[in-house]
Amino acid sequence: MTFSSNDNSDPLAHILPVAAHLFNNSGAAISLFDDQDWLLYGNAHYYELICYPQGAHLTWPDIVRDNYAKGQGLIVETDNIELWIKTALSKRRTQIYRQFEIDAWDGRWLLMTETLIPDVGLLGIGVDITQSKNMTTALKQEYQNALVKAETDLLTGMGNRRALERLRHILLSKGHHLQVTALMIDIDQFKPYNDTLGHLQGDHCLQQVAQVIRSSLRSSEAYPIRLGGDEFLVLMLGAPLSLAQQVAQRIRNGVHKSAIPHPITSSGLVTLSIGLANREIVNSDSLSLLLKDADDALYQAKRSGRDRIKLV
User: Fold this and answer.
1) Which one in 26, 96, 196, 250 has a CA-CA gap of 20 to 30 Å to 275?
2) Which one from 153, 186, 230, 307 is the annotated catalytic residue?
3) Alpha helices, DSSP H only, in the chain?
4) Is 230 one of the annotated active-site residues of the chain?
5) Is the pTM here over 0.70, yes or no?
């Protein structure tokens, strides 16, 4: 252990050799600052943390300024280092004990504790929590991945009904009325397609149609969803109905260009029927009514000959 002083002696090491040994071998970064924020003591781990030679005599603000200027030691993310220091100083010594996390330039995370000891100074202890921090981050990432998987249709990569429910909550949380257009999309005569060519080919057909739908969307506020079977939904937030009609036509034309063979249809190719509806989302029932309107429009497209777009 080393006290910063004019001589090379270590009074604490002479008085408390056992404590000195424990501090230097604890693995923690330990420091002691006086009332004027001069560094009275730092063990080897602390000096290593702040990138100073052991025994250097300096103030806490100077340590922060130097680390910030050199991009080493303690990491401070700010555009105004002096304002950051002023804010940080206003928090020091306001509590007998406080705890916070910091990260260092070498990639480590430390859990810092500051304990105000009357007539002695501010004792700081930093414990390396990098492993637990990384584990927590990994767990959060795994959770997010699981959440994405739970809301993703595995066959097409589109959102599923759970994703639709999340979108419903998002729409309601926006706090203002929003025009939403729904495109309800159905593959014409898909059951006989499946019965004739088999489910593996049917799955491939669904993937091809899903790819056409996704590639036809230009707006980041357009959400493609597979509702189940051969039924798809696209929700377009804040888009005018005219744009939604263009998107619907682009999807229909895209499937035509894909020229997916169909053993039953008159054209010999897979075609789509699409229903369009638009509604202002004002409450929890609005989206349900919008989907019903789009479904009614889809039914009209089916009844009037398939391979067409109908607006409710």
Assistant:
1) 196
2) 230
3) 11-15, 17-24, 44-50, 60-70, 81-91, 130-150, 161-173, 190-197, 199-216, 241-258, 286-303
4) yes
5) no
